[in-house]
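re the bet — no i am not wrong, look at it urself. input seq straight from the record:
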Amino acid sequence: MTVTPAPSITLSNGVQMPQLGLGTWPMNDTETAAAVASAIGLGYRHIDTAEKYGNETGVGEGVRQSGASRSDLFITTKFCRQWHSADGVRQACEASLKRLGMDYIDLFLMHWPNPEQDQYVETVGAMSRLIDAGLVRAIGVSNFKTTHLQRLFDADLVPHVNQIQLDPYHLRADIVAVHRAKGIATGAWSPLGRGSAMLSDPAITAAAEHHDRTPAQVVLRWQTQSGYVPIPKSSNPSRQTQNLDSFDFTLSEAEMTAMNALDRPDPGMLDSDVFGH
């Protein structure tokens, strides 16, 4: 079964980004190649990986196995802390391209700010040179708080994307408000929760029953109706199909409101002031 590819959003530099992608963590290269080839065959056009995941080679292999044209795909990858410098980010990009076996990256992200290094502003500033060099099409950050973003703004830097942990239990309203004010696209990792009971929440299961959909499809539709770009991970073709097939119904205002009321504190959530790689 092939599902209609996800619609796209337009980033602030005009690049079109499919509004749902395939996450690949924590799959190894072999698992990733199979999952990517399967997903592309089903209709996915956006694949998300990272240097830290150790599976960029698998993503490239999966793309080649799929037979899809590179120009029809949107590939996101991320670089680690050791490359945080004006020169280092170019080296990180070239290393990712070699592992992917590709000539360009659609979206290149700084994986974590690592503020104790105090090099993220300089590094983001240098990332635009990768666009000028034709190595990437869009640039962004991941796991940036409002304080990290403000330091970029103070240097007249506005990333195209900030990919953050975001789901109905983690609304991240302060960060999302800044994104909307600055025209930054909001990417969502772990969009279906991280081992929580979220998919069993009555607000979600009620909407799933009403629309004859799975709870996961309802949460993904909440993500996309909110304007976010979720990146659910799955190596199972049936689950991949369900995740992508989440655009042809609309949650009501009441259902959206009910899900927007689910935000709650999470002491265990990774803190990007102290965690990073």
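see?? The beta strands are 8-10, 16-18, 22-23, 46-48, 74-79, 105-110, 136-142, 161-165, 185-189, 229-231. told u. also The two ends are 38 Å apart (CA to CA). so pay up
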